[in-house]
Every structure is written in structure tokens, then in C-alpha cells.
Specification:
The complex is a heterodimer. Chain A is of the alpha+beta class. Chain A folds into three domains: about 160 residues, 2-Layer Sandwich (Aldehyde Oxidoreductase, domain 4); about 200 residues, Aldehyde oxidase/xanthine dehydrogenase, a/b hammerhead (Aldehyde Oxidoreductase, domain 3), CATH 3.90.1170; about 280 residues, Aldehyde oxidase/xanthine dehydrogenase, molybdopterin binding domain (Aldehyde Oxidoreductase, domain 4), CATH 3.30.365.10. In chain A, about 30% of the residues lie in helices and about 25% in strands. In chain A, a hairpin with a 2-residue loop joins strand 23 and strand 24. Chain A starts with 16 loop residues before the first helix and ends with a helix. By secondary structure, chain B is α+β, with helices and mostly antiparallel strands. Chain B is built from eleven helices and 14 strands. In chain B, helix 2 links the parallel strand 2 and strand 3. Chains A and B meet through helix 4 and helix 20 of A and helix 11 of B.
Chain lengths: ~800, ~280
């Protein structure tokens, strides 16, 4: 195929921007609703843990404007429990049934003629709670004497699995040094500007639900929702709005509300709309997991690591809501990070506590893993008196070793880590930064430098989560694997080209890139291609892997778009060869023409040939009929977990090397980021501007996690971060622009050589800043968020 | 986040506003810029039965020099005062403190008197009023009165304003020749309520420091001409005496430490500016 690369790789203008910048975005709350649509408000638990003696809804039901009130009784009567991701007899309802397990858990849904009246009626509902002791600390949840949060469980440990790869016991027994870190990673969230929204309708004549929701995928949740609603999947039509006000994973968490509002619509007998407000979002949408980790390394005197031992205690909150405990297993294939370490032991425990259930968040599992791993690298250097960068260099996977199979089964597709580090140090000005540090220290200032090396996984293997099950249970359930990406390219009767992708974009610019991919294939301009990204499960091609998560668009979805377009192109080439009377190989697509190479005058217009199968199908040969092509592409490298629990959890593995210089004010404890350098290898860069946007956005999220953000709970489970005055997000004033550098080692496993890039800084940046801060204040234990008060206390104890 | 039902009165005269307040008392709320009140309504933390909108009263809209004071009417938005060309000359402390009030967006709506009425212990405008020893003009159907800042702020979000009274204006003393003014603040992010804010006025005989964000209201103390070790000690005693609280963002001890550091910097800066 003679695809030119005129558009891909350029920072072409985003087709999305004109509408968004002129207020013409079409978000869920902007869209017209059917006349008669009702509005829902949700009563939420004020207790972290309590039996519900009674819920009195009589006064609310007769309040002005109220049509119906739904409680756990209705929900259990009309639906079944949401399936959970571990083999355990746990029920998971979208509303409290008999018992509340976290502050913010839905207790009742009031459906009224408007949201104001619905909220008025919420105040009339009388809940009689019998409070129970709350378990907040994940370590307390390990205590077998504590009563379990769920009937059917013997303790609050929902899963406990151990893994061994290589011979870690021997490596540790022979180790010169054993160096460990103990980490408590806090709860935080990516807090999109647009909150959740659902408009649901039930058709009793068809026993079918029709739902519009700003759900982002994965569409593996669709069968979960349909099952809960007790209908086959073809009776749950799920549509997404054209625009999204951001997600970062978080809108995966709309799915329990899709079930809940669907049931509310069924009870009300009318369409019901619910837009989550910010208080609801902060208290009860989803956040990332908090985790307690002990990570130990068997280390030689030169800093070379021979084995790692992970002990991770994952706090998923009050329910193991699907796809959890995926946060814990997404990184399973790359638990050795960027390093060549052959011996590995892992113990993973998943515990339940009286906190909001967790879910997808940008970085998904990466921040928790790399915080421990990269703090460990710095601690090894500190303990052995080595330069942290030397410790990283000595352990990174050699450039000649790709594709590299990790100890736990990950297949790192491509990379040149040593070169990335060398280029970053040189172009990022590491020597100058060290001089600045030395000068600051000579003046008595607290200045430090931190480094991180991170492997950024993208395009999740749909089977990785089954690693939580023992091999014999996986055998019984049947293998799960792959990552079906879907794309459709079509010609209309005027020869215009349309594209549909089931990628549920959340602001990234999928329409721009898909157009560029197709324009390059057909020798057209991006503005000639119309891309539609709304998804309708009743009409569009999709799979369980559809949606917007695990940074899969550039690597997987664009690949599917490319395959669909090249499939149609091959057909047009056959037709053109016959008409132009030249061999197929000599047909080229240039500037809207299909022509014979070497004889540009022997040409047809693209539009005419693309329309031919509409107008004159009788003269187009069977194998050249070209109207519409839908491609499903799954990467062969994504195989199920093996009998010995090895799993290639992701298709692509980008590389990030960051370093930064920070100063901590000795009296206020405030952090000033002097310089931040982030080097990325995300394979082939499809759009430099969007890649820079992804990196900058991820960096801002990560800076929030590092310095500002934490979902804080009181010892009784009360939620203390309920507003944006308590849960602090960095604003533009607080986010310095990072220096962004690139090298490119294209992925051999994706059609375009691209890898994901959207999540990496959420993995690398919090720990890079923490490493620099630890270096500045001379402390080993630094916990996120690095608040001024904490650092001032650390500096005081060191003074 | 939808407010319960309330009535709304757009006052077309001051008399009308007074009449509603007299009739409804504590069930009425004056709404001006709404930057705090509207979220409180939406969260149902404030539940007035009637809102009295005073933003259409032209007699409250002025910034005026009256003798040695700047009189800021209740309709004046924070951005307006910050943009008032004479501000830095007439009262440098306000010019220094106002950029710390929220963000450009909230200052474009929020009013100067609204911030005084709310009396948030971390807010910059009440702090400046206390540091400068300004006063508050209150009026009602019963007439007018003026209350000095030190008496006006009488507790956590609590003031001497009576339910039927309206703040018509606040009065900040103008800059005095030979006086120096300084302002310092520490917050986790720019635009946040202060963890500690300090405003200092260095006059002919002493240096008055007012501190916000620590106790339940701005607290002022005159450090005279104390310097060096003596100033450090006096600040330590002052900070130790503040009724500081622990919260999500900082401990009481941390706040007191900030008072010692920022207080000293602010005092010294004000004295430098005195020349």
C-alpha cells in the first residue's frame, strides 16, 4: 500500500474545537429531552455504616410534583445484583439494601416534575439508621475479628492471591542488601468538569430500556447492566452524547446509575433524567484506590536488583464494583517497571472498607505501583550511597532486548530506555539542574532532584482481570483475552467518506485523528472526511472492548480505522486498475484523484469511483464492491493469562523518564517546582499538539495528586472532602509548564506504530516530585499529598 | 444542589429594602454579588424566605472620598474597587490585599461590603478593615449607625449587624503620610481563603498587625517599635495567644508558626514603606 503520510504526524487543527470554543458543544445536559421527562434526585447516606431500620417515604411521595420514590425494595424486586469481579458471594446493588456502607450511598430516588421539587421531597424522607462501627483503614480491614461488611464473606478480605515468578526466595536469601519501602497511597480522583448524566426510558410493550448516558466505556459494562436489568443486551439500548466534559476514566462509574435511573424510569412510567451534582460527584462517584504497599528488593552493592517482593493491600471501598479489582491487576504484567528483574513475588489482597467504591481514573493502577517502585529506586540509592540515576540506569531493560517478556508475562513491545534517559539528561539540562541544586544547598536552602523511569501500559487485555482468579477457576470460566477495536468507513452516493468509531471520546480529538488517518489512506484532506463518534449500541458496530479507557485510541482504534480504510482502498484500486488499464500496484491515491503512477493524466476522481458501488453496482466486480467496511481488530499479542499466571496485561508499553528540581520553603513547607522535564516514547506520534496536550493535562492531574488532592475520611467514616474548598485541585496558577521531550520507537504490534500517551504522567509525576521532595528535606517517608503543613513538620523534626 | 423556594425582592429604593428587612428580620437575606450566598442557597445551608437584591440601588454604587476616608457603597464590586485608579494612592493596603480576594471571576461579582457582611475569618477585606481601623455604616428603618471594625466582627462569621439592618457602606481610612502598609498571605493555592493573612500598618508611634485565617475573626495587635529578638518574642506570644484550630489543611501549630514568620515579614515591610 502506498499510503502517504501527509496529515498524520502533523498538528492539524482539531475539528472539535470550533464548536467547543463557540459554545456549540452538545453535552448531555444540553440535549433535548422528550416532553414529559421527569427529573430525579437521590437521597444519600449520611452514615458510613448502618443498618437501615426503616425508610419512610410517605410524605415525600405526596409532596408537590413528585411522581414516584424508589428505594432498595423496588430495585431488588425489578433487577438483580451487579456482578462483581471476584469469586465471592457478594451482592452489589446500585442503591443501599437494608444497610448503608459508605457516606453518599444512594438510599432513595425521588422522581418529580423538576429537580427543585425532587430535592424538596428528599428532605421529607425519614431514614431510621442503626449505626454500626465503620472500618476506614485498609489495615484494619485485614483484622479477621472485625465483622464483615458483606454477608456471605468471612472477613473483609475479598481476595488474597500470591504469585511467584522466577526464584525470588533464593534471590532474597542470597542478596547482599534487602531494601524496602512502606507506602500508603491516598485516595484521589480526576474530577471531570462535567458530572454524570443519565436519561433513561423503559418501554413496557417491548420490555426494553433506552438510555442516553455520558458513559465512557468499557462496554464490557453493557452486559453487566443488561444482566442487572434482567433483559438481554439487545433490550438495553445505550447511547452516548456527541460531546463530553471530560472523564479520565471516572465516567465508567455512571454504570450503576444507568441501572438505577433505568429502574426509576420503569417505576415512574415516564422518561427520567438525572444530572449528578458536584456534591454527589465528590462524595460518591468513583475515585482511585488507596493502597498500602510494602515493596522489598534484593539488591547487589552496585544497586542492581535481583528480585522484587510486592505486598499490596488494595482498598476498593464498600463494594467490589466491576471492573474492580482491575486497578490492582492492570499493572500485573509490568510490576517490574522499566527494569530487567527476573525474580518476583507478589501478594495481592483486596479489602473492603466503609468508603466510596473505587473505579477507573487516569493512570489506573499505575500511580499506586510506580509510587512504591520509584521511591524504592531512590531509597536504594540513598541507602547504598549511589546516584539514583545510576541505580535506574543499571537496572533498565537493555535496548537490544525488545520485545521483552517480563517476569510476570508482560510483553514490552518496543523501547530504547537507555537512549531516552541519555537524551533527556542532555536536552533537559540535567547538569545545569544539578548545579542549581548545589548552589541552593550552599545557601542553606532545601532543594532536591527526583527521577522516575516508568513503563506506561496501554490497550488493556480484556483478560487481565481474570488473573485475580486461580488458574482452575479461569479454566472453568473459559479464557478471556483480546481488545476488539472497531471502526467503520463508508462511501456515500456522492463519494464522500464517513467514519464511525466506537471509541466514546471524552474530549481528546478522536474525530480529528480518525479523519487524518483516512485522509492519508485515500489521498484526501481531513476536512473531506466526516467522523461520527456518538455510540448507539443498537445500531453501531461495537464490542465489549469499546469505549475510552487504557489509552487505546491511538494504538488500537486508529489501527482499526486504518485497516477499514485500506480495505476499501484495495477494492477501489482493483476497480481503478480495470478502468485505467494499468496493474493494481500502479494505482495511487493523490489529491482527490486515483491515478496511474507515472502517468498522472490517466486518472479518475476519487469521488466518482467511491460512489460507483452505489450507482452502478452491476459493472463493479464483486470483489471490488466498496460501500462500507467495518473492521474488528484484536491484537494477537493479547493472550489469556497462562496456567502459571503470566499475563500480558497490555498491548503497548510506552516509556517515560522524568526528572525535576524542587525547593521546599524551610518555614512554610511550600513546594516550588523549579524545573520539570518529562521524556516520552509513545511510539509513533500521530499529532504532536494533542500529545503535548495529553502530557500537559496528565501532568496537571499528577501535580494535584502529588501536592493538593486527597479524599479524606474521618475515623467514623465521615467524608471530609465534600467540596472543592476541601478537595483542592491545582489551577493554572499552580501548574508550571513541563519541558516535554520525545524519542520514537514505533510499536511493532499496532497498525500505525502508535502507543497510548494519556496516562503516563499520572504514573510518573507524583513519585518524581516526591523523590525530589524527599531529596530536598532528607526524609525517607514522604506521603502524598505533600502538603506544606506536612513538609514544614518534616523540616522541623530534621532541623 | 437546588435551593428551596424563596421570594425575591429587587429593591428599587433603600426604603423598600429597609422595609423588607424590618418585616422579615432574620428570615430575609440581602443579596449583592451572591458569590457566597448562592452556593449556600444551592447547598441548602442558607434558607432565607426572601432575598432582597440591593444591586439596583444607585445610591449604594459609589466609591467616594469623604474627608480622610474612602467610602465604599454596598453595591461596589471587589473588581471595581481594585480597578479604582486612586486606590494605590489613597490606600495602598487595599491595593495590596484585594488581588488576594478569590479570583478575577469572583471579584467581578463579589462585593466589598458582602465580604464584610459574611465575616469569614480568613477573608482579606475584613482583615484590611480591622488593620486600618475602619468602620461599617449600618442602616434600617430605625436610622443609621456606624460601628468600628473591632466591634463589628464579633465571632465566627458573626457581626454586630442586626437582622433588620443593611450594610450601606464600609469606610476605610485613607493613607496617612509617613505611614507604611504591607500585606502578606499564605494559602495552598492562589485565590484560596488564607491559611494565614497578615496586614500591617506602621504609623508614627507603632506597628499594628492584623492577622486573619487563624482565630474566629481578624485579630490586631500593636507591636510598637519592637525589633529583632524582642519582636520575635512578642510575635511568639501573640501567636500562642491566638485561638487557632486544626483543620483539613493545617494544624493550629502550623498556623501559629506561619503567623510568626509572615507577621514578622509584614511588620518589617510596613516599616520599610513608612519612609
Amino acid at each position: 500500500m502506498n499510503s502517504t503520510m501527509e496529515w498524520l504526524g502533523q498538528s492539524i487543527e482539531r475539528v472539535e474545537d470550533a464548536a467547543l470554543l463557540t459554545g456549540r458543544g452538545r453535552y448531555i445536559d444540553d440535549l433535548a429531552i422528550r416532553p414529559g421527562t421527569l427529573h430525579a434526585a437521590i437521597l444519600r447516606s449520611s452514615h458510613a455504616h448502618a443498618h437501615i431500620r426503616s425508610i419512610n417515604i410517605e410524605a415525600a411521595r405526596s409532596a408537590p410534583g413528585v411522581v414516584s420514590v424508589v428505594t432498595g425494595t423496588d430495585v431488588t424486586a425489578l433487577s438483580t445484583s451487579l456482578v462483581v469481579g471476584v469469586k465471592a458471594p457478594i451482592q452489589c446493588w446500585p442503591i443501599a439494601v437494608d444497610r448503608v456502607r459508605y457516606v453518599g450511598e444512594p438510599l432513595a430516588v425521588v422522581v418529580a416534575s423538576d429537580r427543585y421539587l425532587a430535592e424538596d421531597a428528599l428532605e421529607l424522607i425519614d431514614v431510621d439508621y442503626a449505626p454500626l462501627p465503620a472500618i476506614i483503614d485498609p489495615l484494619a480491614a485485614l483484622d479477621a475479628t472485625q465483622p464483615p461488611l458483606h454477608e456471605g464473606l468471612e472477613s473483609n478480605i475479598a481476595s488474597d492471591r500470591s504469585f511467584r515468578y522466577g526464584d525470588p526466595a533464593r534471590a532474597f536469601s542470597q542478596a547482599t542488601h534487602r531494601i524496602a519501602v512502606d507506602i500508603r497511597y491516598p485516595r484521589n480522583s480526576c474530577t471531570p468538569i462535567e458530572t454524570y448524566g443519565v436519561v433513561a426510558e423503559y418501554d413496557p410493550t417491548d420490555d426494553a430500556y433506552d438510555v442516553l448516558a455520558n458513559f465512557q466505556g468499557p462496554f464490557s459494562m453493557h452486559p453487566v447492566m443488561a444482566r442487572a436489568l434482567k433483559v438481554p443486551g439487545n433490550r438495553l439500548r445505550l447511547r452516548t452524547p456527541p460531546d463530553s466534559g471530560g472523564s479520565f476514566g471516572v465516567k465508567q462509574g455512571t454504570f450503576p446509575y444507568i441501572v438505577l435511573i433505568s429502574l426509576a424510569a420503569r417505576v415512574a412510567g415516564r422518561p427520567v433524567k438525572w444530572i449528578e451534582d458536584r456534591l454527589e460527584h465528590l462524595a460518591a462517584s468513583v475515585c482511585a484506590t488507596n493502597r498500602v504497599t510494602r515493596l522489598e528488593a534484593a539488591v547487589a552493592t552496585d544497586g542492581r536488583i535481583n528480585a522484587l517482593a510486592w505486598d499490596q493491600i488494595e482498598d476498593v471501598g464498600a463494594h467490589i464494583r466491576a471492573p474492580e479489582p482491575a486497578t490492582l491487576y492492570r499493572m500485573h504484567g509490568n510490576l517490574t517497571g522499566a527494569y530487567d528483574i527476573r525474580n518476583l513475588s507478589v501478594r495481592n489482597r483486596v479489602v473492603l472498607t466503609n468508603k466510596t467504591p473505587t473505579g477507573l481514573n487516569r493512570g489506573f493502577g499505575g500511580p499506586q505501583v510506580y509510587y512504591a517502585l520509584e521511591r524504592l529506586m531512590h531509597c536504594i540509592a540513598a541507602e547504598l550511597g549511589l546516584d539514583p540515576l545510576d541505580v535506574i540506569r543499571r537496572n533498565v531493560i537493555p535496548s537490544s532486548a525488545f520485545p521483552y517478556r517480563t517476569a510476570s508475562g508482560g510483553l514490552l513491545d518496543s523501547g530504547d530506555y537507555a537512549r531516552a534517559i541519555a537524551v533527556a539528561a542532555e536536552d533537559g539540562g540535567l547538569a545545569e539542574l544539578k548545579a542549581r541544586r548545589d548552589e541552593a544547598r550552599a545557601q542553606g536552602r532545601a532543594y532536591g532532584i527526583g527521577y522516575t523511569a516508568v513503563v506506561e501500559p496501554s490497550v488493556s487485555n480484556m483478560g487481565y482481570i481474570t488473573t485475580v482468579l486461580p488458574a482452575e477457576e479461569r479454566r472453568r470460566a473459559g479464557p478471556k483475552n483480546g481488545a476488539q477495536a472497531t471502526a467503520t468507513v463508508a462511501f456515500d452516493p456522492g463519494g464522500a467518506v464517513s467514519v464511525h468509531v466506537a471509541s466514546a471520546p471524552q474530549g481528546q480529538g478522536h474525530r480529528t485523528i480518525a479523519a487524518a488517518v483516512v485522509a492519508d489512506v485515500f489521498g484526501l484532506r481531513p476536512q473531506d472526511i466526516r467522523v461520527i463518534t456518538e455510540l448507539d449500541t443498537a445500531r453501531d458496530a461495537w464490542s465489549i472492548a469499546s469505549g475510552n479507557y487504557s489509552s487505546r485510541f491511538a494504538a488500537a482504534v486508529c489501527g482499526a480505522v486504518h485497516l477499514a480504510a485500506t480495505g476499501l482502498k484495495a477494492k477501489l484500486q482493483r476497480s481503478a486498475a480495470a478502468q485505467l488499464n494499468v496493474p493494481t500496484e500502479q494505482i495511487e491515491f493523490v489529491a482527490g484523484k486515483i491515478r496511474a503512477s507515472g502517468n498522472p493524466d490517466n486518472a479518475l476522481s476519487f469521488g466518482r469511483l467511491a460512489a460507483a458501488s452505489h450507482w452502478s453496482p452491476g459493472v463493479v466486480p464483486e470483489d471490488a464492491q466498496a460501500l462500507r467496511e467495518t473492521v474488528f481488530w484484536t491484537p494477537p499479542a493479547l493472550t489469556p493469562p497462562t496456567e502459571s499466571d503470566e499475563v500480558n496485561s497490555s498491548l503497548c508499553h510506552g516509556f517515560i523518564f522524568d526528572f525535576c528540581g524542587v525547593e521546599v520553603d524551610r518555614s512554610t513547607g511550600a513546594i516550588r517546582i523549579d524545573k520539570y522535564v518529562t521524556m516520552h516514547d509513545c511510539g509513533r506520534v500521530l499529532h504532536p499538539g494533542m500529545v503535548a496536550g495529553q502530557i500537559t493535562g496528565g501532568f496537571a492531574h499528577a501535580l494535584g495528586a502529588a501536592i493538593y488532592e486527597e479524599y479524606t475520611y474521618g475515623p467514623d467514616g465521615s467524608f471530609l472532602s465534600g467540596t472543592f474548598a476541601d478537595y483542592l485541585l491545582p489551577t493554572t496558577t499552580e501548574v508550571p509548564p513541563p519541558v516535554i521531550l520525545h524519542i520514537e520507537t514505533p510499536s511493532p504490534f499496532t497498525p500505525l506504530g502508535a502507543k497510548g500517551v494519556g496516562e503516563g504522567n499520572c504514573m510518573s509525576t507524583p513519585v518524581c516530585i516526591a523523590n525530589a521532595v524527599a531529596d530536598a528535606v532528607g526524609a525517607k517517608d514522604v506521603d502524598l499529598p505533600l502538603t506544606p503543613a506536612k513538609l514544614a513538620a518534616l523540616l522541623e523534626t530534621r532541623a | 444542589m437546588k435551593p428551596p423556594r424563596f421570594d425575591y425582592v429587587r429593591a428599587s429604593t433603600l426604603t423598600e429594602a429597609h422595609a423588607v428587612l424590618a418585616a422579615e428580620g432574620g428570615d430575609a437575606s440581602v443579596i449583592a454579588g451572591g458569590q457566597t450566598l448562592v452556593p449556600l442557597l444551592s447547598m441548602r445551608m442558607a434558607r432565607p424566605s426572601v432575598l432582597v437584591d440591593i444591586m439596583h440601588l444607585s445610591e449604594l454604587a459609589a466609591i467616594a472620598i469623604e474627608g480622610q476616608t474612602i467610602r465604599v457603597g454596598a453595591g461596589v464590586r471587589q473588581a471595581e474597587l481594585l480597578g479604582w485608579p486612586a486606590l494605590a494612592i489613597r490606600q495602598p493596603l487595599l491595593a495590596l490585599a484585594l488581588p488576594w480576594v478569590g479570583h478575577a471571576q469572583t471579584r467581578a461579582r463579589g462585593t466589598v461590603c458582602g465580604s464584610v457582611a459574611l465575616a469569614d475569618p480568613s477573608a482579606e477585606i475584613p482583615l484590611a478593615l480591622v488593620a486600618l481601623e475602619g468602620d461599617v455604616e449600618l442602616s434600617s428603618t430605625q436610622g443609621k449607625r456606624r460601628v468600628g471594625a473591632a466591634h463589628f466582627f464579633n465571632g465566627l462569621m458573626s457581626t454586630a449587624r442586626r437582622d433588620e439592618e443593611l450594610i450601606e457602606a464600609v469606610r476605610f481610612p485613607c493613607r496617612r503620610l509617613g505611614h507604611g502598609y504591607a500585606f502578606r498571605e499564605f494559602a495552598r493555592r492562589h485565590g484560596d481563603f488564607a491559611m494565614v493573612a497578615c496586614a500591617a500598618v506602621a504609623g508614627g508611634t507603632g506597628t499594628r498587625l492584623a492577622v486573619g485565617g487563624v482565630a474566629d475573626r481578624p485579630i490586631a495587635y500593636d507591636f510598637g517599635e519592637l525589633a529583632d529578638e524582642a519582636l520575635t518574642e512578642a510575635l511568639a506570644t501573640f501567636a500562642a495567644g491566638l485561638d487557632a484550630q486544626d483543620d483539613l489543611h493545617a494544624t493550629a501549630d502550623y498556623r501559629r508558626a506561619l503567623v510568626r514568620k509572615l507577621g514578622r515579614e509584614t511588620i518589617l515591610e510596613a516599616r520599610r514603606c513608612r519612609a
